[in-house]
Specification:
By secondary structure, the protein is of the alpha+beta class. The chain folds into 3 domains: 61 residues, no CATH class; 113 residues, Alpha-Beta Plaits (2-Layer Sandwich); 43 residues, no CATH class. The chain is built from 9 helices and 6 strands. A 4-stranded antiparallel β-sheet has the order 2-3-1-4. It has a two-stranded antiparallel ribbon with strand order 5-6. A hairpin with a 6-residue loop joins strand 2 and strand 3. The two termini are 22 Å apart.
Length: 254
């Protein structure tokens, strides 16, 4: 009884049969791959709004700080971390919204802004993402300007130097049509293969004597021939002028 229970709880997977099953449905898998790629391409190309980025840069090292000592360099690095908090703060962003007359809230503008400090540098990179490249540039430049003035007034520091204004001639950074198309094709093929695999695993139809042993755990004692004429329950006999021939027999598992 224990062996029978274990047999019922186990699902034996024949990798060779599974591979052949997938191979038999290669057309379906290929169709799903193409369909997924076409859908992803269409959505990326025609439905998703392109996004552009523009980056302005601030140099944190002030005029009163030299670069001749390790202490001065460490001071500049620490100031960069402080300035990142200030530049992305609510007072600066709300002033930018007011100056440019943006139809934005503080939170929505904050989501568009990314600050980055490259390793071992005192450069503060202000990157803004927007569906309009000119708007992205204007916001990045204004954040750099307002942030520099705010630091000078509120933190009693020399204002960081704006060493680069944003650019408006870049290519869209998203969506990536090629990447999304490839990903859509992969997902489509994966879903098709998952359907085939699940259908294979849960298919309990008994077709051969081997299936009886594998799925029921029973031994086949023998087989009987099955006349083709038994399909309709009648033996219509030979037609006039023809001799009755012996039907080919199939084997039926017991």
């Amino acid at each position: 009884m224990e062996n029978r229970a274990e047999l019922d709880n186990e699902i034996e997977i024949d990798l060779k049969e599974l591979f052949l099953e997938l191979l038999a449905f290669w057309k379906l898998i290929l169709l799903a791959l193409v369909l997924g790629a076409v859908i992803a391409y269409s959505v990326s190309k025609f439905l998703m709004v392109p996004q552009y980025e523009s980056t302005a840069e601030l140099y944190v090292l002030s005029k009163s700080t030299s670069i001749t000592s390790l202490a001065d360099i460490q001071t500049g690095t620490s100031l960069t971390n402080d300035y990142m908090v200030v530049v992305e703060g609510r007072p600066v962003l709300e002033q930018v919204i007011a100056n440019l007359g943006l139809d934005e809230t503080y939170k929505s503008l904050e989501d568009k802004v990314t600050l980055e400090n490259p390793s071992n540098s005192r450069i503060l990179m202000i990157t803004v993402r927007d569906e309009n490249p000119l708007t992205a540039k204007a916001i990045a430049d204004e954040i750099a300007k307002v942030g520099s003035n705010f630091i000078s007034l509120k933190m009693d520091q020399d204002p960081p130097t704006i060493i680069q204004n944003g650019y408006a001639d870049g290519e869209p950074v998203s969506p990536s049509v090629f990447k999304n198309t490839a990903l859509g094709g992969i997902v489509g093929a994966f879903l098709a293969m998952a359907v085939v695999v699940l259908s294979y695993l849960f298919n309990d139809t008994i077709m051969t004597a081997e299936d009886v042993e594998k799925k029921l755990g029973l031994n086949v004692l023998g087989t009987l021939p099955l006349e083709e004429a038994e399909d309709d329950g009648e033996d219509k006999g030979p037609k006039k002028g023809q001799k009755k021939t012996r039907k080919s027999a199939k084997k039926k598992s017991l």
